[in-house]
Amino acid sequence: MKINENQKVTLTIGQLKRLIKESEYMLKPRYDSRASFYNKARVEVNYDGTEILYSYDTPVAKCSPDGKCEVLPDWNYSQTTRRHVHEFLRQHGDEQWPPRED
User: Fold this and answer.
1) For strand 69-71 and strand 41-46, is the pairing parallel, antiparallel, or unpaired?
2) Left, alpha or beta for 84 (phi > 0: left; psi -120 to 50: alpha)?
3) Residue 71 belongs to domain spanning
4) Rg for the chain (alpha carbons), in Å?
5) Which residue stretches of 1-102 are H helix?
6) Using an 8 Å Cβ cutoff, are 7 and 21 in contact?
7) pTM for this predicted structure
8) Does a structural domain hold residue 76?
């Protein structure tokens, strides 16, 4: 079906998310001693280059193309999810996570 650029289109939230999401990949350990995260750590790359880490299908951290990374708020993660977050941030150049307390 062809859609003309002036035509209105109705999409579900799921369809819209699939259009906005450019790609995804499974996080592979480079710094962690584990051989694999067994497909429990997935990274979505959005159209603007932002990468969002999902651990067990929950968004837990993100990094923008300019190198700014953040752990998403309101979390109480398992040890495994902490490993996923730590690996993701280290692969994006953040060596200081978790933050040191002064």
Assistant:
1) unpaired
2) alpha
3) 22-91
4) 16
5) 13-20, 79-91
6) no
7) 0.74
8) yes
As for how many domains the chain has, the answer is: 1
Task: List, for residues 15-63, the tens digit of each pLDDT value.
Answer: 777 666 678 999 999 999 999 999 999 999 988 899 999 999 999 999 9
Kindly state whether residue 83 falls inside one of the protein's structural domains. yes
For the sheet containing 41-46, what is the strand order? 21-26, 41-46, 51-55, 58-63, 69-71
Name, in order, each residue with C-beta under 8 angstroms of 22's C-beta and a sequence gap of 6 or more.
45, 46, 47
Under a CB-based contact definition with an 8 Å cutoff, are residues 17 and 77 in contact?
Answer: no
Q: Under a CB-based contact definition with an 8 Å cutoff, are residues 88 and 62 in contact?
A: no
In-domain check, residue 5: no
